[in-house]
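Worked Example 4.2. Read the sequence first, then its structure tokens.
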Amino acid sequence: MMKSCILKHFNSYAELTREDEELLVSLEKSPTQVAAETELFHEGDDAQAFYTVLKGWLFSYRNLEDGTRQVLDIYVPGDVIGLREFAFSGRLTGVTAQTEVEICEFPKQRITEVFSQSVLLSSLFFAIAAREQAVLLERLVNLGRRSASQKMAHFILEMFARLKRTNHYTESRFAMPLPQHILSDALGLSTVHVSRTFKELKQEDLVYREGATIVVPDLERLKEFAGFSPHYLTETVPHIPPFKE
């Protein structure tokens, strides 16, 4: 079986059969390289396909009437892009490649075929879509009820937890190739405030930023500071017996 980010991601929710794994791998055919800062699609474009992320980072966003932008989510290897638009004909957001990425495109018809062949995978796709909604809900709380330093700390812990699904981190150090203007648009802070926030976290010995690398000396201490609980990211799917006619 080929190495697959989507397999690692789905296996973190539930144990898959070989048949389920083969179905998932079939969604990762014909990978495409996309250059950094390329628009994958815009808000309002036809939503006829999903994408699996094999490599790199992307983000979704909405442009606002006053010319500003709200970054809504970050996509990392193993994620599926477009699940929120399953029932819509048009894109609800735009998506841009932040780094050079490798993605696989598959039409909506393919996901309905997967649903018809595997009860477990159907449940997992819905679980992942529900988790995306939980991330947005937590982001809403983060934006409205936490200080700037807590917002940043919570965001960093969330990204670390999400990356662990498809990567094996043994240390509290990971790459987060998100420049200050992206963090600004994601957290509702000015770019100056983002820089100041990193300085405050460094002074408290909570977070160090070394270029695009984030270092967390004490994860538990940072979680306590941010009020972070990973439950919305780490839930698994209960065992589902095979369907019998």
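Now turn to a second chain, presented in exactly the same format:
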Amino acid sequence: MLVSILLGLLGGLVLLAVAVAVCLMLATWWIAAKSERLVPASGKFIEIGGNRIHYVETGEGRPIVFLHGLGAQLHHFRHTLFGRFGEGYRLIALDRPGSGHSVRAKGATGRVTEQAEIVRQFIDKIGLAKPLIVGHSLGGAIALTLAVEHSKAISGIALLAPLTHMEASVRDKFGSLYIQSPLLRWIMAHTVAIPASLKYAQRTLAFIFAPQATPPTTW
């Protein structure tokens, strides 16, 4: 009798866990679909080594490529900087693999050296002649990697609050983002990651912009 009760409780807990996981997956799908409607792809796509890269460009002249940071996307440059350049520049911003509308290749690691190589191939594929690379935060680390490993492909780099040094450990605020297991990363990405990011969005923005106040949204 006791065994039957325990098995029934265990079965109920399993069903509850499955129901919660399904609800989180549906919520993630709904949020993703809504996000794509609110911020649709606005540029072009190009295939590079299995990566589907989304990018926007405007103007003609000296090429400048913009690389965004962690958790960002190309609009962070497009809406803030593109309008400040005059004539004589070809401005290109791309969603790094796995960010924005860019899809990372199956088996890709996302390592800085790997992303730098993708950017180098991107430069070749769309026919840019030694562009200036602007890198923000993690994008700054990729820009530095390009300068070290692919210096002939670029004319120079401009760094905005860049990540410049290897750190011995993951900082506390970023600990939840460091998940070594590919399976666990997949599970988190398709269940709790997106709903949790929305719940803590304002707190995350306050942390990112601190000690300054979060700027008002204008677009």
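Notes for the reader: The CA atoms of residues 24 and 191 lie 5 Å apart. The first strand starts at residue 44 and ends at 48.
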